[in-house]
Amino acid sequence: MLDYDKEAESYDKLRGGEPRARAAADAVLGLIPDHEGRLLDNGCGTGIVTRLLAGARPALRVTGVDLTSAMVRRASARLPGGVVRADSRRLPFPDGTFDAVTSVWLLHLLDDPADLRAVIAESARVLRPGGTYVTTVDKAKAHDVGSDIDAVLGPRPRRPASDDPALVDAYAAEAGLVRTGLARFTGVGQGRSPRRTVTDLRRGWFTLLPPGEPRTEEFAGRLARLPDQDRPRADPVFTVHAYRRSG
Asked: CB atoms < 10 A from the CB of 118, how many?
């Protein structure tokens, strides 16, 4: 896994920046009832989406949570007084505190099924009955857009998707959450070019292809031979699920 303390400074720039964040926020807000209350952004990262959620819904009191110190510092600059450093698996809030909970690009980071179950259960616990949980799912699949880059990377080793939609649905049901909606949005500015993909490979973004290993360099060499080295291919399209807490 990437070191997110080191990634914090360049995180937004390398992942579509404000346009991608705006698309994500719009999709999330489309699944959350428009009324006053409290919203928790669980795993808020740099706060780039969190700030947009707060700005779009002034009646919502928005709080962000993240475990990584550097991410919390950046998020706190965007949402002063509204960000807490805490573990998403053990949230420091009483039961039923929030009217909505979001987790954008968080679940795919949880390799251990116990961690995935814990994050979903905690998100449900801090929701009031009837509250809404919204989360991205199947992030890795979104990046497979059928391009020549994907054809080169097709044989690479892959981990099972921890945020597989069926698995997320199952753990959500265990936590008393009922799926109520689905949305998709474009990851604006995240279309891969061959040259950028080689850089990502060598930075360790593909977790089963460690930097410097012969197989990593083999894939890098194949990518370097593709045409139009700096032309981005199609942007990914991400999927968001919405759930309602029963009871």
From this structure: 19
Domain of 134 in residue numbering reads as: 4-144+159-190+234-245
Residue 49 CB neighbour total at 10 angstroms: 25
Whether 220 maps to a domain, the answer reads: no
Residue 13 has pLDDT above 80, yes or no: no
- Does residue 168 sit within a domain? yes
Residue reference for tokens 């968080």: 106
d(CA 166, CA 172): 10
Mean pLDDT over residues 157-170, rounded? 95
The rounded distance, in Å, linking the Cα atoms of 93 and 224 is: 49
Count of domains for the chain: 1
- Confidence category of residue 27, pLDDT binned at 50, 70, 90: very high
**Per the domain annotation, does 184 fall within a domain?**
yes
Share of the chain above pLDDT 90, in %: 88
Tell me whether residue 211 is in a domain.
no
